[in-house]
Amino acid sequence: MQDDIAQRQALLQAQLESLVAAQVNPEEQSLFRRFLAAYFEMASLAALTARPPEQLFQMAWQHWQLARHRDRELLIQIEPPARPGDMACLRTVADDMPFLVDSVAMAVRDAGTAIDWTIHPVVQLRRDDKGQIIQVQGVGDGEHPAESLIHVEFEPLGSPEAYARLQEQLELVLGELRVVVADYPAMLANLQATRENLSGHFPERDQQELEEAGAFIEWLSQDHFTFLGYARSHAEAVDDGMQLHLENDAGLGIARHGSRYADADEFIAPHDEMAKYISHGRLVVVTKANARSSIHHPHYMDVISIKRLAQDGSVEGTDRYIGLFSLDAYINRPRDIPLIRRKVNYVLERSRLPERSHSGKHLRDIIYQLPRDELFQCSEEELYHICMGIRALRDRHHLRLFMRRDRYGRFYSCMVYLSRERYSRELRDHVTNELKSLCNGLSVERTVDFLREGLARIHCIIRIPQGTHLAMSESQVEERLVSVTRSWSDQLREVLHEDGDEGVSLARRYASAFPVGYQETTRAMEAAADIHYLSQLSADQPVLPSLAVASEEGPACPTCLRLYSREKPIGLSDVLPMLEHFGLRVVSQDPTRVSVREEADQWIQVFDVRVAGDCALGPVQQKRYFEEAFLACWQGRIENDGLNRLVLLAGLDARQVVCLRTLTKYLVQTGLPYSQSYMEQLLADHAVIARLLVQLFENRFDPSCSDSQRRDDGVKLAQALDHHLDQVASLDADRVLRAFLSVVRAGLRTNFYQPDEHGDSKSWVSLKLDPTVVSELPKPLPMFETFVYSPQMEGIHLRGGPVARGGLRWSDRREDFRTEVLGLVKAQMVKNAIIVPVGAKGGFVVKQGNPADRDAWQKQGIACYKQFIRGLLDITDNREGETIVPPPGVVRHDKDDPYLVVAADKGTATFSDIANGLADEYGFWLGDAFASGGSAGYDHKKMGITARGAWESVKRHFREKGKDIQKQPFTVAGIGDMGGDVFGNGMLLSEQIRLVAAFNHLHIFIDPDPDPAATFVERQRLFNTRGASWDDFDRTCLSEGAEVYSRSAKSLTLSEQACEALGIAQRTLTPAELITAILKAPVELLWNGGIGTYVKGSNESHAQVGDRANEAIRINGRELRCEVVGEGGNLGLTQLGRIEYALNGGRINTDAIDNSGGVHSSDREVNIKIPLNQRLRDGRLDRDTRDPMLERMTDDVANSVLRDNYVQSLALSLLEYDAESRLDEHANHLRTLERQGILNRAVEYLPDDESLGERRTRGMGLTRPELSVLLSYTKNALFDAVLASDVPDDPFFDQDVLHYFPDEMVQHYRDDLLQHGLRRELIATVLANAVVNRMGFAFVHRFADEHGLSRHRMVKAYAMAHAVFDGDLYWAPVDGLDGQVDSQVQLRLYGRVIGLMKHMTTWLLFYKWGRRPVAEAVNRYRKPIAELEAMLPEVLPGSYREEWQQAVEGMGDDGVPAKEARLLANTMVLGSAPDIVELASQAQVPLAMAAQVYFAVGDRLNILWLLSAIIDLNVQGKWQALARANLREDTYRLHRQVAAKVLEQEGDSADARFTAWQEKSRNKVQFGMHRLQSLQADSPHDFMTLAVGVRELRKLRSL
Fold this sequence. Notes:
By secondary structure, the protein is of the alpha+beta class. The protein contains 63 helices and 38 strands.
């Protein structure tokens, strides 16, 4: 920085040197250069750079021309500007002396102009005798003589005369300055003489006065006074006192004889006035001169008069010192200044206030804040009077005057005190003018100071004609000032000041802010009220309302509304609809602008209003309720709708209206056929009922209400509501109002009374409901539903049970999002049959914002999602260990309900971490298991789990059609794009895919003859490229005639190849027509990975479907020409569309079956995290250990999920395999579920009895979509039954819990898993799925109904049977035959295992094993059965061995490997294994002997034939089936009983024992054997003939 300055100075010096060389004579250059250097040496660089170098040179050169020859003391040169726009110039040359520049500047300013630029070189110059410069010695150093050169540039004067007057004034002032400087030593000598005079011995004089006077003189000599003049007077005794005579020759400085200030009468005061002072005891008097100083400062000069004493102490005369007090005299503490300090001490002592007390300090502050001239000039008494008066102002707020007349009668000093808020320029001028008028003043000098304590002081020095006396007292003058200054603003101030300090502050801001028109029509009291509202306005509070309510005539009702706003008035288009919603009709409006100094404008808008109807509250409460509600509505905290009129009509506050608004918004979503506006009007028309509804809600949910009060008041409110509802005349009104009542009564929990973090009511309201209590809800009814409402969003969460899960979607169906969610939860209930939680689904809509602004819309969506989640968590119980912790501030009308999990869905795919963050904020026990798929969860897209799960169904469809799509090419049409999870992952699951066509919301993709390998690679590239679309597809990979079209195009032209691939003739189509053609394309697979509903039933309308966006492209199910539909996405087809397609021969399940992988994966994640997160909370595990483990288990989770998808699609195939023959069984099962209230066939689009009859006639069974529904509902029903029983408490099922989790978890956290919070639910889920998947959905219900057993016992019996036989040993080999044998053969093979399990299950139940521990049965039977199986087929005799061998050979002919064939053939006889085990135990014989005897009995008595004949009986109807089952079971039991009889005989072999038994009753045995052989020989066989055979066995058992 310093280097830069030096460089710039050097440059300037060089430029000036160059000008000197060019423009100054060579002989003069040397001397001028030294002058030039000294001229600018002390000037700042900033000053010099303000002028260009040429101008600086001319300035110095012209001054040089003036100064180089000086023939007199003072040289002055004034130059008017040479041309318009230039500055005038003044140059002076004089000996350097003090105050020179100040005095010159004062003279210029007194001429009425302004100085623009100045420079003041002080140069040491040596001149010759003629005054010519002969040497420039440099700049002045303050010690050697130097000359002052002043250059001033100023604004031009108005005339040549003005320049002449300025010249004269400068010569006069500078002449006086020279005299002052010359006489300065003499004045100091006189001061010393005065000091010495007072130092004498004057015993008659007040010694303190003498000491104080001496000290003051000493203080003056210490540079506290600028001496400008001295005057001396002597005193002479006259008749009436003393008279002073001025000694002219003694005058010094400006008081020299002959000067303009030499006459003391004119300059100070008349001698008569001054003579009065002589007799006064005061030695020193300080006063003001009558003239301003022209030297140093332009103030009125100070005059210090000091008495000169004779030796006897009498007054000899006076010494007057004229000048100016220095700055120190005005800023030093008064107690440090002699004379003043004595007055200060007098006041403090007289006040008797302790000096260190608050009051004493305050008094001292008052003194210190007084004008210093007042302290010098007033007496002790005057000072005391003033100080006490000011002190009293602490509690006064009106104007206060303190007047003091100059002791010489030349002026009045008037100090006017008032509060700072009252002060204004106008008031100042009023006061000044009034004082000048009253005092008959000649001139006024005033100053304004703002003091402590909130006071302002106007100090006026009013010059008056000599001898003037006021005829009014000080108090009268004060009253006059108060009178003339009391304006409307003052009245306003007085009103405001009544509010203390706050009012003072408001008065200061607003006293002059109102226009005249407002002041003329508004009283100060009303304005004060307005001000209190206006003062509350801010950026955060830009609008405030004030309602005036009149109650003179009739009920109190609003008459006037005042709205206060900042910066601009409220637009009528904004406020009028809002007022109408509050029930107010605006008659007129009057706006007023309020202009507050240095602040933004404010507005008052006055509306004359009327209300239609009677208001329910008194004026005060009505005003408060309305203003709070209006403000909340304006700020968006409550909605602007017609419900707001209930504030006035029903007397509800804003929060109570929110209660009704929540109920109203919910009812709108229930499908009640009335609009919101109609419901609003009904509530307004029945305001009493509206209020009662709110009171009932409060009674039901207010946590401050005691149980007894809740009960007693609840009865009264119910009676009142019933009474008023009975009076409702309109049926529609009655229906709607009773619907409101039903919702209140259905309420189970609400967060309505929970405060937010600021203690205010939460902006969102959540209400948990029992749907069975709500009137007119559409079916199906979930177990619970929670409605969340706020002005920004609305959401619904439907749950099928206490443990339920499902995604939360960002819906765009604001008018009917509950309908959308209800449809989704139906599918979710079906989908969730394979997991622990039952189905749940949630959806929310965003009500504010613009979807076009994607970033802002996304931000708004996240905020609304958070509100939704908070609303759900607010009313959900928490867990602390095993303890259930209810939510605070919530009254619960239901049981403990701690299980709440959510998942991603449409629009919320990336929100899981947000939800988990909120769960953490709430301390929710599930932690990040609350929302699966977060950053520490299983990423569905990365796993591809939803698509892979659906692909299991697709593979099965094709496998059962004889095609392996992993090895053989197949054509596909798709919905979605490669960036999507389901579509993208799905289209990478086989390298044989030939994707012919696809579309998403932007593009349409057509590839008539795709190359599977090349297009697979390109699809993979798109999948891995973020943001890629179909338009990014590499065209070189496409076949001839391929193209990617934009859906925004008006029309599209297809190639011939494309038309052929799509099976259409028309080549020019609209985008919608082309998409419809794709949906109808004759491809092998239609893969849905998108969002939307594209296929419906022929009898369905688009309105019933509900997806308006796709109405133009939606087709009917029978129009599908594809062979298989894979539903990776939700709701791609309606259920009726699926059924219609399936009836036409298409292969399809449901979306709930196909895409359950995602929800299954999420549920496993939650169940895995529950025990791990408990360890996290306990400190036994950290995230650094848990999260990598979760990642390592990804494949285990995926395999488990896919296994379930595989088994569930297999279960459907097994059901479909004999669906035609089992139609009656399936129909009976459907009726059973419906009768038990589990299923509503109309809601699920299942066929009614008439349709079932048609199916029976046409030889058709239920379709796969229908079977899918029954499959899932059955699982859910069995889950509930098992969970409600003691079955999950059997320790044997611990192995199912452990098997559910990955091996790594089992190894490390076995005990935690066995103590899992959902252990029972896990077991119930596993068991329900196992029995339904393997045995079909009718098995448990049918057998339970037929035999009067509980369903949970049936499930346990199946689990026991499976464990006894280790069923997977039989299921797994059949599963392994995928692709090796024909699918129909494989399904028949499953039937063998099913038959074995069915028989074992019924056997266990018949022999009362259902209530015994599973482990007991396993321990008793598993090992012997394994031993028995090892004996097969060798242990089998004749017919058994023959049948076994035929089975093996038959399976071999069907392509079944020998090992699997032998294993499955064993199932034919293993059903008898438990009987054989029991026989061996009972007879105490080896197992082999018991088996040999058992099979020998069966062979000899043709029991094998009898069983086969019974099984082959063709039955129709439930009862015939039951009869057949009874025959079969009787045969098995009788077989065992006969074998037991045989084993009682002696013999080394089975034949020997049978012979011994036969010989005991030869005739009877022979007859029985003959009868059975005869029956076998006869055909056909019916119930009657086969019953005869069973009867013969019954005879034989008793032998």
